[in-house]
Amino acid sequence: MLKATLRSFLAHKGRLLLSALAVLLSVAFVTGSLIFSDTVSRTFDRLFASTAADVTVSPKEDLDEAVPSGRTATLPAALAERVRRIDGVAAARADVEVSGLTVVDEANEPVGPTTGAPTLGNAWNPNERSPVKLTSGHAPRGPAEALLDSETAGRKNVRIGDTLTVIAAPGSFQVRVAGIVTFTTTNPGSALIYFDTPTAQTKLLGRPGTATAIAVDAAEGVGDDRLKQRVADALGAHTYDFRTAGEQAESDVEQLGGFLDVIKYVMLGFAGIAVLVGVFLIVNTFSMLIAQRTRELGLLRALGADRRQVRNSVLTEALLLGLVGSTLGLAAGIGLAAGLIGLMGLLGMNIDADEMEIGWATPVAAYVVGLGVTFIAAYLPARRAAGVSPMAALSDAEVAGVGRPLRVRAVAGAAVGAAGAAALAGCAVSRQTSSAASLLGLGVVLTLIATVIAGPLLVRPVIRVLGGAFPALFGSIGRMSQRNALRNPRRTGATAAALMVGIALVGGMSVASESMTASFDRQIDKTLGADFVVQNSNFQPFPPEVTEKVRGTDGVGLAVRGRFTPVAVRLPDGDRVETTAAGYDPRLDEVANITYAQGDSAAALASGHLAMDRDFARDHGVRVGSTLPVRFPAGRSAELTVGALTDQDSAEGFGTQGGLFFGMGTLERYAPGGQDSALYVNAASGTGDGELRANLEETLDPYPQVQVRDLADYKQLVQDQIAVLLYLVYALLGLAIIIAVLGVVNTLALSVVERTREIGLLRAIGLARRQLRRMIRLESVVIAVFGAVLGLVLGLVWGVCTQQVLALQGMTALAIPWLTIVLVVVGSAVVGVVAALLPALRASRMNVLAAIAHE
């Protein structure tokens, strides 16, 4: 049996090739994501471990910034002198590091990275742990000199002696490049600019004698944990945060982890789609191969092979397929990881591909995925093969299930579909976001399974409609192509299912994204009353001098500041909620249209007062007049009175969870040192919008990071952000289509082999080569469109239910992207034509007599 299995596998290797490609893609994305994330993680582990001080003392912060506030936490630089006197300390230095700087060259072009990585300003304190070393020029001397990293200098063509303008929170200032520093470790993509310590303190922090951290080196023989305890005892354990080198490195890795997780999970999403669609392809391939080998399997049974041996023979073929696909996929995954590392290099993150990390878990995952996919997909066809009777060797019977009733599928599909529909219905009526999202996920999974199970039941009624015009348009050729698609509902359903999965995903996400865009557009129209909004291009805060210059611009009648801060609120029901609150200037009503359930803007912005969303307040037992303990950064606390409750469709623009906002006076009292995130600007009387925009753009010309947006620009900005998610979904669709095309090609190719004699007879009675190719193309088109229709129906249901979940967050508009739907259907027909090209060509080249004699 083993010899027979190996001979069979080698005999059908061409037919199994496309299935192996599906396995290869699945494994490649899994291994590529694991290798890439492991390599980047290990690289940054080494970077942070080599640059972290033995002990780091930093300001105590117990609130995370979900939205940047522009505030830099500091501590006294004089602490370094106190630390130096502690037993076991070899050295201590006051460090200054500030992110979010903007640096421009003499042509007013930004010098920093454009990939989202920050520009960091630092005090020049060279030591053995520094990530850079001075390679040309000299160290900065005084407030007019600075150092720039070599990669930024090379990328932006900056040389020693050039003048740069640094835009920091305390204000803008110019420096001359006195030297170039070169990274001794991995550059995470940031731009680095160094100043002497007094300049960094005054120009970056705005406060002489301050620092952002104290770096402590241990004396020989003193462990990090022991030194940390001594420093904490000396300074006060609850006054600052104390971290050992290992803890600091772990904290830095955690901050980077979000970025790495995004890449990892995106790639695993591609892998999941490849696995799911590949399963359908493999099931169909083995089902058809077994159907074509019915007599062969029957002969094996007649020679003495039992059911178990036949089943194991088919499963062995599948495992061989999985083994080949996994091995090739592992190699492709290594190449994919190398490509991603190269891409990161283009984006400014330099990772050495020679240090690629391939842990033991990666090949294990590769073979588990590859062998697991093929084994699971081939199990049902293998069971069917084991049921072949020895008498089949004497007949032309097949076990593809053409004539078997679909009652079991009908019952199973109806049961699973009813459960999925109930979950989606529950999602639509739920009032809690968490439970609605859980029901949505369950409903999506169950309805997908139900559609796959019941797909063959839908083949005959749907394809009769989709191909109904074929006889009229193409005559007998059209009729035969329609009947060929109807001949085996199981096969047609499984082939179409691969395409259905990708299109359902795109349909659902297209409805969700279109609805989000419409909801934001409606909310912006409803809420934003300003003529213009001045914002940083990447939503980072901007220096106060920008606000001052905008207010002094000709034609500006009103400029209302918007600023954010993290807060923790203790609510009457006992919950402690950490969220982001916003602060606004008086006259907010002139630039924003806020609907209040109780109170008004005057009460909301009054000193010591705040406003919150009505639904959030109701859920936590808050009323107008309630006094809430609010904790601000740096340990500041206040008792604030609820002055107003808002009734917005969304709290967007006025904070995050809870929609908390208060007056700018309250914010500056309890969270000083922040920067403005937006200015809402109205024109003065007699000034037109065009004139004001031109004046604002002239004022902001020295600040290339800040942009002027009107209502249409603001909407486009939101749409662009949502589009990023949609592009990812389209990429997933592209992958699903690639594998689905392989499936259709495989199905048609095997179908051509299966119908060799029939094709020979048709050719013998006068069917032309061109007519034969058209017949196979039409069959392919109707199968592809059938999958698209199922996918779109399923995707629309998912999208509508997703919008119901989003409505709980204020995004109440429902929008259906009809153009996308039409394009998907047309695209599916094109996919069908493309997939049929090779099988149709092969069929048309058959020798007529050899085809008639084929068994």
From TrEMBL:
It comes from the Bacteria. Residues 107-144 are annotated as: Disordered. The chain crosses the membrane at residues 265-291, 318-344, 364-382, 439-459, 465-481, 493-512, 724-753, 778-798, 818-838. Coiled coil: none annotated. Residues 17-233, 492-698 form the MacB-like periplasmic core domain. It is found in: Cell membrane. Residues 270-390, 732-848 form the ABC3 transporter permease C-terminal domain. The keyword Transmembrane applies. Signal peptide: none annotated. InterPro entries: ABC3_permease_C (IPR003838), MacB_PCD (IPR025857), Macrolide_Exporter_MacB (IPR050250). Pfam families: FtsX, MacB_PCD. Keywords: Cell membrane, Membrane, Transmembrane, Transmembrane helix. It is a multi-pass membrane protein. Belongs to the ABC-4 integral membrane protein family. This is ABC transporter permease. It comes from Streptomyces violaceochromogenes.
